[in-house]
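User: structure tokens for Single-stranded DNA binding protein Ssb-like OB fold domain-containing protein, please.
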Amino acid sequence: MATPTKTGRERQGESSNAGGKPGLRKPVFTKVDLLKPGTGGHNLTVKVLNSIAVPPKGRPVSHLLLDLMKPGTTVILRNAKIDMFKGSMRLAVDKWGRVEVTEPAQFAVKEDNNLSLVEYELVNIAEE
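Assistant: Done. Predicted tokens:
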């Protein structure tokens, strides 16, 4: 007699902890110099050097985040992604991400390696 296979929801409920919920994985933090265009899911601890206000598109939440991004502040970005704007990389956090202010970091910022100043060009490769 064949046993029925379990659906995804039924498998999700199985876990080793007593609460019945699947355990959360610890975040893996990335260094800024490893970021590449078009990637996402990054967890970073960054220090704000400067912030430039972009005109809002109607969401008042952006005003609150701008208050958090003062120079010298250390911020943890979870589930961040790289957006391309005019050939340059921008670090963005969408609705699934998280921005947290944390205690001042003890690392030195490499200001000579500013990835926002690097210009990328989209190149189409013709397949033969």
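User: Anything notable?

Assistant: The radius of gyration is 20 Å.
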